[in-house]
Amino acid sequence: MKNNHFKILTLSILSLVGVSSCTDLEIEETDSIISDGFQGLADPSSTVTNLYGSLAGQYAGQDNYFALQEVTSDEHLIPTRGGDWGDNGLWRVLHTHDWNGQHAFITNVFQLWNGNQLQASQVLDSRSNPSATNIGDASFIRAYSMWVILDNYGQVPFRDTSLPSTSVPEVLTGQAAVDFILADIETAIANAPATQAASGEANLRASKAAARYLKAKVLLNKHIYVGGEPNGADMAEVISLVDAITADGYALQEGYFDLFLPDADTETIWALEANTINKVVMGLHYNNTSIQGGGWNGFSTLAEFYDLFEGDAEFNELDANQEPANGQEERRGGVPTIGVPFDNQPYASELDGYVNGSNVGYGFLINQQYALDGTPLKDRQGAPLTFKREFKDGTGAVNFINNDETTGIRIQKYAARNGEASISHQIVFRYADAHLMKAEAMFRSGGDPTSMINDLRTIRNTEELLGTVTAQDILDERGRELYQEAWRRNDLIRFGQFGRDWLFKAPGTIDNDDYNVFPIPPAQLLANPNLVQNPGY
């Protein structure tokens, strides 16, 4: 990858600097009052604000958390194109499941998200005199951060702030970890404000709806952490939690790609003020976008994932009104044969680096790409700029390396044409996911969620409704609805498909459940003897 691929990672870099707690959860001097160990925070509200900023940085980038959730799946891969995106295999090993505990992203996520929960614990310490609002925010952030660590690593180091800073953090696993996280969520529900859908800035922090969503997510995945099968009582509670979110006015909303604008809507349960530029440009060609400086020409998707959507597998141009054509469903998007004028981009400005308009479509971009005036674009060698389903090297062989500039179908969800490069608004929890969690809970407890799945398909303007749904139908619908929202790894594990074969998967990792969690970084094992390396590593 070229050096300029990392120039725009301001928030991610800030998060690495701002959350500098050692990976063994050693407490460092910030605004806390320190004499003999931790004695309390002088300004817990400021720490809460900083925590949300850290989360935004950790969530914003195309690396670290996003890469572990998406590039490890069938949804994203980054082939090496010439000298670009080699990075000593940093990206390739995620898609092939050939990673180890030294991988930078695996190490960073463990450190950063454990740092979140330590700072949240400092806020929650009674010596910090937190307000009820502080307690709601910190309990929510600690629960979310600890759940991320549990889901990705299977064990969570936890430091009790009442103990000396030299004490070794205990490690929570299985039921004990789930119980701790659920207790924090209950505290968040009790102390966070009740917000209504479409309430804008109120959805940038913890709310009762966001905490209930997180609790539903934990319960839906609980059997993965504690063993056994999904519990009927847990599934019933997932349904009840989603119903409570619905009662606050959250609902499915039409206009799929409009949901990813910063406008208020009925689906955004929780969003972060996280810049979207990385996710706008990470897959676009250098000549493909009207953003000055061009795209990074990296991230692509597998043809098998693209084929989950309705429509012609080889052709997805938009019609004259910039709407999906050729039988494609709305969520698949398409390629515009002519650009959108500058004046029609609601969040663009000349200061954002936009020139006259955008020539980039929504959703999945395949085949010929076009300039603003409809002229077919070319790549840097003068060949037609046609994004291809296959990944082939110079000899025509299918290969992960030595690809040309045009291999791979690209994705635009936070879209260049909306001026999203300048918008700090990324959705973390969305109602459509809650809707699908309820449908899945119904299915896992013996109910029939067909009408719920078809309600979503109808509002997304699909041409076909499903018959009696299967587990595969639910997983596929989650893929179509939630792609690029950092849920694919979690979904594949829950449905028992993270270990299945896909293009370029390393043979030794196929059907191997050891890779459902990442290795504990070696430095962590040395710092905390209570941690134990995960099986298979």
Automatic annotation (TrEMBL):
Residues 267-537 form the RagB/SusD domain. Pfam families: SusD_RagB. It comes from the Bacteria. PROSITE patterns: PROKAR_LIPOPROTEIN (PS51257). Its main location: membrane. The keyword Transmembrane does not apply. The keyword Repressor does not apply. Keywords: Cell outer membrane, Membrane, Signal. InterPro entries: SusD_RagB_dom (IPR012944), TPR-like_helical_dom_sf (IPR011990). It is found in: Cell outer membrane. Belongs to the SusD family. This is RagB/SusD family nutrient uptake outer membrane protein. It comes from Maribacter confluentis. The lineage of its organism: Bacteria, Pseudomonadati, Bacteroidota, Flavobacteriia, Flavobacteriales.
